[in-house]
């Protein structure tokens, strides 16, 4: 066991505070990672505040982890000391079900294990990346390409794969018109990735406040959804709409923006249920879908794709004692576009 410093929420909705946690000794197939940077995902806030249901405390959030390998178990074959690596939303799965065998560990029917606020196969609570070190099975670690600096790579472990996976699955590419709802931590990565895939990209945001940013990130068009004319002008325009917001939407209005056979895919997860008139789906053979991160192999594919195209996340680097302030700013949509903790300050 190794004692390391961390930032934890002691109870639901309580401010995070500095503490210490125990990391397990390195097992045969484990990798010990010195965490260098950890992204702050809106999911961290939802879970620390029990917005998605009952949680386990104390909670050390963080599933956007970038660091360097400092020790490997005797059976490790994929990594060695000094390698630049990342850990995303999962640290284990059953590895035996059809989904796991197909590389979709995020949909493990035996129960995947989250990087934090979960119980591992050993019965121990998992603690996330707001800490100095983490021990993870090598099969749930990914390699960060040399073309990506660790700080801008960290948010790719959730925000990157969460947008890359549905964009690839639903065929974003040349000749396709893609809209991204929201230009936040997820949305700005959706714009970058959809643009790099070759799609014509439109941002749908509440206002035009971030229009210049959106266009610089790769959007071809930018519209304010607070303007009723937007929905009239863009009716029937898009092959794919990616919703990255965590607030309830008028899905009927957004479905009207799809072409026949188009899809609206949700990666944002509002805490409240939504209402939907099914005629907005039936008319035009439209699809309302959801998507959750990606498997380990696809996460590696995404990292390689981002490195090949020369981009990571747009970040604001903060010290650990600024985490609570950062949570407030995320909830107020006051970040461009991902907070990343310099874990040397923990």
Largest beta-sheet details: 7 strands, mixed
How many helices? The count is: 11
Per CATH, what is the topology of the largest domain? Quinone Oxidoreductase, Chain A, domain 1
Shape: globular
Work out the strand percent.
Answer: 25-35%
The CATH class of the largest domain, by name, is Alpha Beta
Unreliable residue runs: none
Number of strands: 17
**Mean pLDDT score:** 96
CATH architecture of the largest domain: Alpha-Beta Complex
Distance between the termini: 19 Å
Class by SSE composition = alpha/beta
| Helix percent band | 10-25%
Number of domains: 2
Rg: 20 Å
How would you portray this structure in words?
With 346 residues, this protein is α/β, with parallel strands linked by helices. It folds into 2 domains: 209 residues, Medium-chain alcohol dehydrogenases, catalytic domain (Quinone Oxidoreductase, Chain A, domain 1, Alpha-Beta Complex), CATH 3.90.180; 131 residues, NAD(P)-binding Rossmann-like Domain (Rossmann fold, 3-Layer(aba) Sandwich). Helices cover 24% and strands 26% of the residues. Strands 3, 4, 5, 8, 9, 16 and 17 form a 7-stranded mixed beta sheet that branches. A 6-stranded parallel beta sheet has the order 12-11-10-13-14-15, with helices on one face. Helix 11 links the parallel strand 16 and strand 17. Helix 4 crosses helix 10. The radius of gyration is 20 Å and the shape is globular. The mean pLDDT is 96.
């Amino acid at each position: 066991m190794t004692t390391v410093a961390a930032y934890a929420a002691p109870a639901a909705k309580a401010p995070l505070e500095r503490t210490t946690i125990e990391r397990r000794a390195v097992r045969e197939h484990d990798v010990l990672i010195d965490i260098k940077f950890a992204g702050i995902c809106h999911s961290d806030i939802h879970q620390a505040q029990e917005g998605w249901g009952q949680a386990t405390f104390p909670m050390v959030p963080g599933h956007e982890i970038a660091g360097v390998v400092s020790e490997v178990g005797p059976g490790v074959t994929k990594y060695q000391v000094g390698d630049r690596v990342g850990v995303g939303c999962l640290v284990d799965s059953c590895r035996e079900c059809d989904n796991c065998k197909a590389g979709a560990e995020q949909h493990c029917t035996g129960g995947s294990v989250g990087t934090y606020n979960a119980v591992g196969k050993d019965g121990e609570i998992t603690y996330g990346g707001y800490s100095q070190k983490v021990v993870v099975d090598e099969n749930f670690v990914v390699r960060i390409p040399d073309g990506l600096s660790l700080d801008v790579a960290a948010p790719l472990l959730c925000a990157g794969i969460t947008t890359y996976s549905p964009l690839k699955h639903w065929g974003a590419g040349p000749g396709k018109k893609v809209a991204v709802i929201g230009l936040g931590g997820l949305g700005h990565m959706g714009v970058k990735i959809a643009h790099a895939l070759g799609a014509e990209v439109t941002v749908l945001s509440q206002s035009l406040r971030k229009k210049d940013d959106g266009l610089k990130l790769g959007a071809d068009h930018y519209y304010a959804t607070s303007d009723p004319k937007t929905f009239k002008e863009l009716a029937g325009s898009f092959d794919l709409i990616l919703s990255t917001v965590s607030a309830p939407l008028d899905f009927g209005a957004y479905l009207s923006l799809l072409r026949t056979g188009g899809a609206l895919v949700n990666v944002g997860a509002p805490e409240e249920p939504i209402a939907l008139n099914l005629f907005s789906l039936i008319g035009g053979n439209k699809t309302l879908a959801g998507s959750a991160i990606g498997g380990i192999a696809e996460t590696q594919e995404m990292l390689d794709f981002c490195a090949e195209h020369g981009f990571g996340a747009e970040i604001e680097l903060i010290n650990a004692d600024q985490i609570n302030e950062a949570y407030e700013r995320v909830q107020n949509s006051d970040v461009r576009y991902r907070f990343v903790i310099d874990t040397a300050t923990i």
